[in-house]
Structure formats: structure tokens, C-alpha cells
Specification:
Length: 151
Amino acid sequence: MAADSSMTGERNAMRPTLILLLLVVCLTLYFIVKLQPSSVGAFGFAVVWLIVPYVAMAALLFVLRRKGIALLPWCIVVIVLVTVTGLSVFLDAIYWHPDPQSPIAIVFTPLLTVPRLLDRGATGMVGRTANVRVSKSPPVNGGVKNADHVK
């Protein structure tokens, strides 16, 4: 019974997460149009290149849910961090510090978001399992981290 309620919670949490990803994809398309690509090919390349991380995150969510790996809360936190990173690069390059080289910064956005996805995703999975472990050993040096400074 508890497994059914957790799966329902996972499904309910996945819907807003996918909506967030769809919203970010729409904002990404808006930012690409705002950059005014010089050709249809440049527009197509930018769309594919900049949307790949978000499609990968959605696919990862479906794979993890299918394998039965708990998605809450770390998956939502990771997706929010990755989307905030990508959107902040767009906002910085287009609105906050516009520059002739801003499109170059936009091209590097997936290269900035994917490592964060991998880093935060792995941290979330390790942290989730590490929180279950309980240390049975007593604290070293009475709980003081550096005994050299204690006299």
C-alpha cells in the first residue's frame, strides 16, 4: 500500500517537473528568436543544441521512474538548478550584459548545464543513500575537527 502511494507521489511530482522543462524549452526558443539567427540552419542548430539537455533530463526522469528509483526530492532540485543555470546564461548574455559575442556564450550553455546535471544528479543519488547510513563510531578528538587549535 505504501509503495502505491509513493508511486502516486512520484507521478504527481513528475508532472510539474515536466511542465517546468517544457516552460524552459519555450523560453529557450524565445531567447533563440531574440538572438536573431542569420539563417534557418543557424536557427535549427541552436534549437537542437540548446534543447538537448532538457530533453535528456526528461528522458532521465522517465528511465528512473521506470526503474523504480525514487525521484523525490533530488530530481526536482537538480532540474531546477540546471534550468536556472541555463536561463541565467541566457539572461546575462542577452539582457544584463549584451555584447557582440553573446551568441558565443549562448553556444556554451549546454556545456555549462550538463556538468551541473551530472554533478548534482550524482550528488543527489549518493546523498540519498548516504543519509541512511548511521555512524556507530564515537567522534574523534571529542568531536573537535582540528585538535591543534584547542589548548
